[in-house]
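Journal club side-thread
Mid-discussion, someone asked how the predicted structure for our own chain would compare to the paper's figures. Pasting it here so we can look after the session.
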Amino acid sequence: MSTAAAHTEPRKRRVGVIGSFVWDVLHGRDKRSVPVEEWGGITYSLSALDAALPDDWEIVPLARVGDDLVDRARLFCRTLRHMAPDAEIIGVPYPNNRVELRYLDDERRTEHLTGGVPAWTWLGLKTVLDAARLDALYINFLSGWELDLETTQLVRAHFTGPIYCDLHMKIMAVLPDGLRVAQPLPHVAAWCECFDVLQVNEDEMQMMAPDSMALAATAMAAGVSCLCVTLGKRGAVYVAAPGFERLRDLPPVRGHTSALSTSPRGGSGALGALRTGLVPSVPARVDGPGEPTGCGDVWGATHFSRLLAGDMLTDAIATANMAASRNVEHRGASGLANHLRGELILS
């Protein structure tokens, strides 16, 4: 072996991220008389991935940002330690997504959307997906239209690694004045077929099924290995398919790469005895309501990061609960990755 070969760094594994960069304007978050403006959307997920991924993984955002904010988005990405050196945010000639949020209480809010980067087409996404050389894929629907069902099905058919999805704004419609309102999700089973691990909150679940077990039955029959329903301050409920304890247990029938799939169980529709549980949250260390923005995004990205690291399912959920609680203690996505790592940032 040559000296150069002996000192070659091992290839880092790569997690792709599909979601929208959003510029938030927040009202009523505290008693301030002026609104607070800052990054939102996928920046919370990117920050949590940066904090929770092991060092042998790197982040590859598959993201397009409006020309009005693309330079600021690139600057944000440069603050993240796990960002792949070849990652590149794509600028597009549209006004970027901007959301005005008005908080009604600690967890409830209204949202008004302006601008908006269009959905990916399969032709455009396939080129980017192939070039990214991914080992895993994290999808968070933050506009709600990043991918339509047909494109998502093509992603599932084309990509052989594990796919994590937070359905999030896929459950929301946008009225003519920009107000986002909940709406039932059509073709629930078809959407579930596209993902290995699926995340929803209680409100989103109600737009998909009468209760968590009804949704779990649909999801597991469609091939989902784990459904997680986040419960805010109460933690998270999970339903896991038989034999699923960690990410390497994904069934090979779904076409996953051998490095992450060793489970002998066959037939993605085989239900057997589902395993369920509640992992309680930990209280945030704040006086007052704290900052709820982005908690679900931080939860999901942390959960997937720890599954990619090889953690057991319940351990990954417990870590995600802790990260979401830590997020409540921080305002905005700037500096969030450092805060989630527990680092003291001196001004």
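Post-session note: The chain has a mean pLDDT of 88.
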